[in-house]
Amino acid sequence: MASLLSRLAPLIITIRGSKREFRSAERTVARVLREREHPVSFEPPAKLRRTVAITRADAAGWPVFEVTPLGGSGGRGAGATGGEAIYLHGGVYSFEIDPVHWTFIAKLAVEAGVRVTVPIMPLAPEGTASVVVPIVADIAEAVVTRAGAERTSILGDSSGGGMSLAVAMVLRDRGLSPMRATVLIAPWLDISGTDPRLAELEPSDPWLAIAGTRAAGALYRAELAETDPMVSPIHGSLNGLGPITMFSGTRDILNADARRLVALAASTGHPLDYHEGVGMIHNYPILPMPEGDAARAIIVAAIR
Question: What is the value of pTM for the model shown?
Fold first, then answer.
């Protein structure tokens, strides 16, 4: 039976008005422009420092944070022992990382005993795919170089999930060995918004809608085609990638993307561990609910 919190989540999301914004391309773009004029803080909440050490180093002019469990040498030993992860946050490539992301990242670091690298990417329309993805790949490659591919995982939620798969493909094309795991949480894998199932799922999704996501996606892809794997990795090859773990709720329009990736993996024999949350909303694995806790335990096992 679904938990009380998971049953309340659609109501809470509806009250927040996210769906109303995403129903309109104009409203979505207007919000993007407002947040460019009045940027939201990307800093991790101070309370997280009770359980994790957080350090910052810039790369390519971007802030890049490292989150490790407390208790290791200089706050880094536990992460160095348990492995490494790169986390790419969601937000339709246009909205900033938020406290829900940071809380999830801190829990992952502690429960998996890993060091989590969190790049703060420039957001669309300034941060476009042809610029952002290669630099994220550079950051991920540096982590793989210091830790080894077998001890490194990449994961992300929503648009960050799509970018995680795109970055994994870039690293493969650069000749790197497959990473330990690629974890996709409610991933946005096809930026075109043309899958017929999207329209079927939209009425039951309290969060996302086709018009707004397409508009945000257009800002991010810029000069690239909608089918370019850098923005729509569903069109890329899974050959040479490591194991994939993926989560998707059935009340999420991006469930259409997830099921297409399941079919693609099955057709090529690629290892994919798929978890579908019946009745769950977008991004349920990172939300504070029992179903999110259960999903996080699976993620911890995959990246530990």
Answer: 0.96
